[in-house]
Design goal:
10 helices; 951 residues; single chain
């Protein structure tokens, strides 16, 4: 039995409806926006609680982003909008060129190419729960693993009415995964009439990244039957790394591969050959196809390999990946009586996306570290292109042969992802104990199917035959030429050894819930509210690589098939106790709590609890305090993900090359020699490259546990709700979250550094090296590590004016100050703790700035609305490089005009994001393109035009 408890977020004096804590909040003069002080006729369910209440007295600090706020950003992806919130720490988005050549990260979820997620509190997307209309949604699939997160790109944007982001945990209400927070996507259910928009945008100075976004929805019906349906189409074109100055080479500021900083690749079009103890390359392409080898290198076609001969792969990547998305939805409601309503929602979404990498790096021999048949191949003496006159045997007279297959064209990874979801709900209300009671029963069926086509892979078994004894290369076999340089590999050779890799993954969700809520009796502070419910959830996930890959015969990242499932039965209860009201120094005093008991088929049962208090000393001020303990169950990918490899951009302290510590630090030298590095200093691989990390799931994983503390207050004076001001609110919250038994791998850079600097036995045992010293594998398998601790302060200020002669004005300012973010990982002598505040982590990319802020000023008068938004990111220091990423202040501007002669139904909008043309700060340890895509914008101004109707 695992017991823990989690506090459902209590809290807050809600802001008035238009004072939604959202970037570019909806202007109250917009025809479809609610009035400034409008309140609903009855209590409703708000995110963070199952008990109905007045939404102006929300139990949780919730950031609300409506469809108008999304439109004001000019962004075509909901994830991009949410990732700008100060409480967000980024996550996957289309700025990640997460091609399969990077491999599968240690989290068991695969690359996630083309997907988009939200990460709150730097705790990882797996610890942020995504709901649609308060119910779970099927997890994403990208044909490279079994993710534990919902792909926000799989949700049709045309169906979104608003998004509510609860910025702390709520597991007793919603179950596993809600440690950092909850994202609740509310869909259009009551729309009447037509809403439509068409937008075009691009990077202005570079004429790339062209984006089209078309939205359409229509609602009709009456109080008894109502239907809302819609569709959308979005197409985003690529931005190439070759078209931005920061990404021309593997490292910032680099001008050639001979620069001491290194980073360029050993896989070159002319080849690199570690043969007969020599490090060789060609002087140039060999017209005859078979070069001449002179062991003295005085004559012939070979010369000594130098850094200048390395290959610059950087400009062949995407800076912004191309994505095409389209889909539709239907929301239908039939009301038979107050006691019985039927709701049905059907959703379909298609995503076509692509990632791109440089030409395939093909290597054979033990020092390459493929981890499969390629490491053991021999080049027979009878191969017609073998210039050495003898059979090249791995580990004897050669250790590695590297070749960049430019003749095969660039590697492309194309994803096709289909998402389908069907939801049915029966609900109603009845009278009991003199109060209204509400019930609902829900069924959610979701399916996600992803296919990926990788063009340009090589079949190792066919390659073995093509470089083996020529007498055995018969029938369709074509002898292969490793040695002739660029242009020597013919289409016939590629036709024999090449193949198109086809991978697939899928996820299934069946979720059934029943809920009952109402009021029991009255206390001095008001009626006691309760909610109880039951949930049964079944999830299945699978990943099926191409059969050639499963056989270990690919030249790219190895992978094996994986699948798994689990089911869980849960019951929960929630209570609200309004103790006192309308007394001196106690305008109101409330206690609340929740409990959920879960029984998982994978590990057993657990119970989570929560409890908190809200106190209003006066009606304008609310204070809150909360304590919670929580739990996250291991996902299917974490439990059952098969072993694979991730090529991480990290540095090896044991190299003798520039930036290494082997030559300069005696302690490091001793520890590195003990770890398998040659004592003579011959291991001199340059820094800035990629090292292989062995990844995979672990069926013995246990759930994570967490403890959350939150204290805060909201000041929202009544005197600011009319006249000169229509709204004013100041909210400040302090949070402290501690995760124990966190499911993760020990970071590869931590293992390398600890082994080299301290000789830690556990770390050194996780590193495998070839006899030459080259790292062939670092153990990155998942385990329950030490834990994570984060503390910080959120603050939000909202001011909105009343009507003036100069129009109406609004100010929204939100910020997060990060006090602590530390991770503890096991070592031989216990645990080591690393505090990341104020740093850039590098691969996997993540900044931890002390402060992030967002501010918006908007103004409207008559048919004109304008807004200016500022986004600030504090400076950080790279952990793995002596480099400071300077602070950045981005500016966005938008102007909208609603002609009155068109009945104000049409709107013409023009906007520019990054108006100051700020480039991202250069990053040496980041995975790709020399910047951190979780935090910073793509270089260049992005301009857009939009025509909308009814919005």
């Amino acid at each position: 039995m695992i017991r823990s408890s989690r506090l459902a977020m209590v809290a807050g004096l809600a802001l008035s409806a238009q004072v939604a804590s959202a970037q570019l909040a909806t202007d109250p003069q917009t025809p479809t926006a609610p009035a400034a002080t409008e309140a609903p006729a009855e209590d409703i369910v708000v995110t963070g609680s199952r008990i109905r209440r007045d939404p102006l007295d929300q139990p949780s600090p919730v950031v609300t982003v409506d469809d108008a706020a999304i439109a004001r950003t000019g962004l075509s992806s909901v994830a991009d909008v949410l990732q700008r919130l100060p409480a967000s720490s980024g996550g996957l988005n289309s700025k990640f060129n997460s091609s399969g050549n990077f491999g599968n990260p240690p989290d068991g979820g695969g690359v996630g190419a083309g997907s988009a997620v939200l990460d709150l509190r730097y705790l990882g997307p797996k610890r942020t729960l995504v709901l649609v209309d308060g119910l779970r949604y099927v997890n994403g699939a990208s044909a490279s693993g079994i993710p534990a997160t919902v792909d926000l790109n799989s949700i049709p944007s045309s169906m979104i009415e608003r998004i509510e982001v609860l910025q702390s945990g709520a597991s007793p209400q919603y179950g596993s995964d809600a440690i950092a927070g909850v994202v609740n996507i509310i869909t259009k259910q009551n729309q009447k009439g037509l809403k439509a928009s068409a937008q075009y945008g691009q990077f202005l100075g570079d004429n790339d990244g062209k984006t089209q976004d078309y939205q359409l929805s229509y609602g009709l019906g009456d109080d008894h039957v109502h239907v809302v349906a819609g569709g959308y189409y979005t197409k985003q074109e690529a931005v190439s790394a070759a078209d931005r100055s920061i990404s021309q080479y593997p490292n910032p500021g680099q001008t050639s591969c001979s620069d001491p900083i290194g980073g360029c690749s050993s896989f070159t079009p002319l080849g690199r050959f570690l043969v007969n103890g020599q490090n060789l390359t060609l002087r140039g392409p060999v017209a005859s196809g078979r070069p001449v080898y002179d062991p003295t290198l005085a004559t012939g076609d070979f010369k000594a390999f130098t850094a200048a001969d390395r290959y610059n792969f950087a400009p062949f990547n995407y800076f912004l990946t191309p994505v095409e998305r389209y889909g539709g939805f239907v929301n239908a409601r039939a009301s038979f009586s107050d006691a019985l309503n039927l709701r049905v929602k059907a959703v379909y979404n298609r995503r076509n996306s692509q990632n791109q990498a440089a030409y395939l790096p093909l290597g054979i021999g033990p020092d390459v570290g493929n981890g499969n048949l390629l490491d053991t191949l021999s080049v027979d003496a009878t191969n017609p292109y073998n210039p050495f006159g003898v059979t090249l045997t791995p580990g004897q007279n050669y250790t590695a042969i590297f070749r960049r297959l430019v003749e095969a064209g660039q590697r492309t990874y194309s994803q096709q992802v289909d998402t389908m979801s069907l939801t049915g709900t029966l609900d109603g209300k009845f009278r009991l104990f003199g109060h209204n009671w509400y019930w609902d029963a829900n069924a959610v069926i979701g399916y996600n199917d992803a296919k990926q086509l990788f063009t340009g892979n090589i079949n190792a078994a066919k390659l073995a035959r093509a470089i083996g004894p020529v007498s055995q290369c018969t029938d369709d076999c074509v002898p292969f030429n490793f040695f002739g340089g660029v242009g020597s590999i013919t289409p016939a050779m590629l036709g024999y050894i090449g193949f198109d890799e086809r991978d697939r993954s899928s996820q299934t969700l069946n979720d059934y819930t029943a809920n009952l809520s109402g009021e029991l009796f009255d206390l001095p502070g008001g009626p006691v509210g309760i909610a109880i419910g039951y949930e049964h959830r079944y999830q299945f996930g699978s990943f099926t690589p191409d059969p050639v890959i499963q056989a270990g015969l690919g030249a790219d990242i190895p992978a094996q098939a994986a699948s798994g499932k689990f089911n869980v039965d849960e019951v929960y209860g929630e209570i609200r106790l309004p103790l006192l009201r309308d007394l001196p120094a106690i305008a109101s005093l409330e206690l609340n709590g929740a409990v959920r008991h879960s029984n998982y088929s994978t590990f057993g049962s657990n119970t989570t609890f929560s409890g908190g208090a809200l106190w209003k000393p006066v009606s304008d001020l609310l204070l809150r305090g909360q304590y919670a303990e929580s739990l996250r169950a291991p996902s299917i990918g974490e439990l059952y993900g098969a072993q694979s490899r991730f090529d991480a951009s990290i540095d090896d302290p044991c190299t003798s090359a520039s930036g290494g510590q082997f030559a300069s630090n005696a302690t490091v030298r001793t520890n590195c020699i003990a770890n398998g590095v040659p004592a003579g200093g011959s291991y001199a691989e340059p820094q800035g490259g990629q090292l292989p990390v062995l990844t995979g799931g672990n069926p013995d994983l246990r759930p994570e546990t967490a403890r959350t503390l939150l204290f805060g207050g909201v000041y929202s004076p009544r005197w600011a709700r009319g006249g000169t001001l229509s709204a004013l609110s100041l909210e400040v919250n302090y949070y402290d979250i501690k995760v124990e038994g966190a499911i993760a791998s020990i970071p590869a850079q931590v293992l390398l550094s600890r082994c080299a600097e301290t000789g830690d036995a556990l770390s050194c045992a996780a590193i495998r090296r070839a006899p030459s010293g080259i790292v062939t594998a670092i153990n990155g398998l998942l385990l329950n590590t030490g834990g994570v601790r984060t503390r910080g302060i959120d603050a939000t200020l909202t001011i909105r004016s009343g009507e003036t002669g100069a129009g109406r004005f609004g100010l929204y300012v939100s910020g997060n100050y990060l006090l602590k973010y530390a991770e503890s990982t096991p070592a031989t002598g216990g645990f080591t703790t690393t505090d990341y505040v104020g740093t850039e982590r590098g691969s996997p990319d993540q900044t931890y700035p002390h402060f992030k802020g967002l501010g918006t000023i908007d103004w409207s008068i008559g048919p004109v609305t304008a807004s200016i938004t500022a986004r600030y990111i504090d400076n950080v220091q790279e952990i793995s490089a002596d480099n400071e990423l300077k602070s950045r202040l981005y500016g966005d501007a938008q102007l909208q005009f609603r002609p009155r002669w068109l009945d104000s139904r049409f709107a013409f909008t023009f906007g520019v994001n990054n108006v100051f043309d700020k480039d991202p700060p250069a990053c040496f340890s980041c995975s790709l393109n020399n910047y951190d895509p979780t935090t910073y914008d793509i270089p260049g101004r992005f301009g857009y035009l939009r025509l909308s109707y009814g919005l």
